[in-house]
Design goal:
The complex is a heterodimer of chains A (114) and B (276).
Chain A: H1 7-10, H2 13-22, E1 26-27, H3 28-38, H4 50-59, E2 63-67, E3 80-84, H5 86-110
Antiparallel strand pairs in A: 1-3, 2-3
Chain B: H1 2-12, H2 19-43, H3 47-58, H4 61-70, H5 74-79, H6 82-85, H7 99-132, H8 140-144, H9 146-170, H10 172-176, H11 185-215, H12 219-231, H13 235-264
Helix pairs in contact in B: 1-2, 1-4, 2-3, 7-9, 9-11, 11-12, 11-13
Classes of the chains: A mainly alpha (114), B mainly alpha (276).
Chain lengths: 114, 276
């Protein structure tokens, strides 16, 4: 399968991040790795694009962030740990419903005639 | 690794946002790049190749900068626009000549902001006063007293123009910006005090003129009462304010010094390859 990239990905990035965070909190790089693992390598995401999306969602109250406290384990700059909020959980279920409806309609249209 | 910091700084420095927000972006992007670099180093034949791959994975710096800029709330974008306030130098041109042109530009920006805010104030006042009596009613008197407002704005322009020109002439401008040179503590205190005096001068003028416009008092008498009010403040209040301003300046300078050492001193290239 060709890689999924560009606008196709950008339109669903926030929903996918919320979904990843539902499985547990994580820092930026961690979220990216989980997205790539779940996408089985088919997501061609410019890694930097994740951060503006995270900041937008944080501003909207969908996720909350804190600086990692345990810096003893690693050297270098601190990372921010993101977690889903209650508002984010509601937004995620709304996104899922929208996606199911969207995928159902497009699926019916795109199906080969029998 | 310095090259990674430079790459991050190239993306973040031109963004119009608070220093706090930009530092968050800097630290987070740097953490990401360092992890990506470590991963790439394991498979690359040289550090140079690993660096290239890690930065490539992050994406085009210009596109990322635009996306990060768009994630900043609009109120912060406006508040940190560089033209009127000049809290930071232009995106890359930190050695831009200043002089009377720069002072005039800043003074004009500040006056424009005041005109907008005071117009809003008068509009709201006009809207609420007739029915609710919450504010003194303004009518034709405002129009009659417009020349007084023009005098107020003129005074504001002169106050800020003179302050910034003075800053430039005696080198205080550098003290306000951690990016150009390391300022001395005395200069930093002087520059903060001068700005406070300029703002205070304008505030007194604004109070005098607003009272004369809203309540029709004589500017001369109001000015006298304001001066009497200032004189009646006990000396320990002034002393406290002075101590606070010194401590505040020390703390700010300490933070700015760290900021300069970590990020501000980095020489970066803009998108066209120009160094600053």
């Amino acid at each position: 399968m060709d890689n999924i990239h560009g606008n196709l990905l950008r339109g669903h990035l926030e929903g996918m991040v919320l979904s990843v965070l539902e499985r547990g909190e994580g820092h930026g790089y961690d979220i990216l790795k989980r997205l790539q693992d779940l996408g089985r390598g088919a997501l061609a995401l410019k890694e930097g694009s994740l951060y503006p999306a995270l900041y937008r969602m944080e501003e909207a109250g969908l996720i909350r962030a804190r600086w990692e406290s345990d810096t003893a384990k690693r050297r270098g700059p601190r990372r921010r740990i993101y977690a889903l909020t209650e508002k984010g959980r509601k937004e995620l279920s709304r996104s899922r419903e929208t996606w199911r409806a969207f995928a159902g309609i497009i699926g019916r249209i795109m199906e080969e005639p029998t | 690794m310095k090259a990674l910091r430079i790459h991050v700084e190239r993306i973040v420095r031109p963004i119009r946002a608070s220093v706090l927000r930009k530092n968050k972006m800097r630290e987070e992007l740097l953490a990401h790049l360092e992890t990506a670099f470590e991963e790439e180093s394991a498979v690359a034949i040289s550090d140079c190749e690993a660096l290239e791959q890690a930065t490539k994975r992050l994406g085009d710096p210009r596109a990322l900068r635009e996306e990060l800029q768009a994630s900043v709330p609009w109120i912060e974008r406006v508040g940190f626009s560089r033209i009127p306030l000049r809290l930071e130098p232009e995106a890359y041109a930190s050695d831009e000549p200043f002089g009377w042109r720069g002072s005039a530009r800043i003074a004009t920006g500040i006056v424009a902001l005041t005109v907008v805010l005071s117009s809003l104030f008068f509009a709201i006042n006009q809207a609420v006063s007739p029915d609710t009596g919450l504010a003194p009613r303004l009518g034709i008197e405002v129009l009659e007293r417009l020349p007084l407002l023009a005098v107020s704005y003129g005074c504001e322009w002169v106050a800020f123009f003179a302050t910034y020109l003075l800053f430039d002439l005696v080198g205080l401008r550098d003290a306000m910006s951690p990016w150009n040179r390391m300022p001395s503590f005395v200069k930093a205190c002087l520059s903060v005090s001068s700005l406070i005096i300029a703002a205070g001068f304008f505030l007194v003028m604004a109070v005098v003129l607003a009272e004369s416009i809203l309540w029709g008092k004589t500017p001369h008498l109001i000015a006298k009462s304001v001066i009497a009010d200032i004189q009646s403040v006990p000396y320990w209040v002034w002393l406290g304010a002075l101590c606070f301003s010194v401590l505040y300046t020390m703390n700010t300078k300490h933070r700015e010094r760290r900021q300069y050492e970590e990020w501000g001193c980095l020489q970066i290239e803009d998108d066209s390859g120009m160094r600053s």
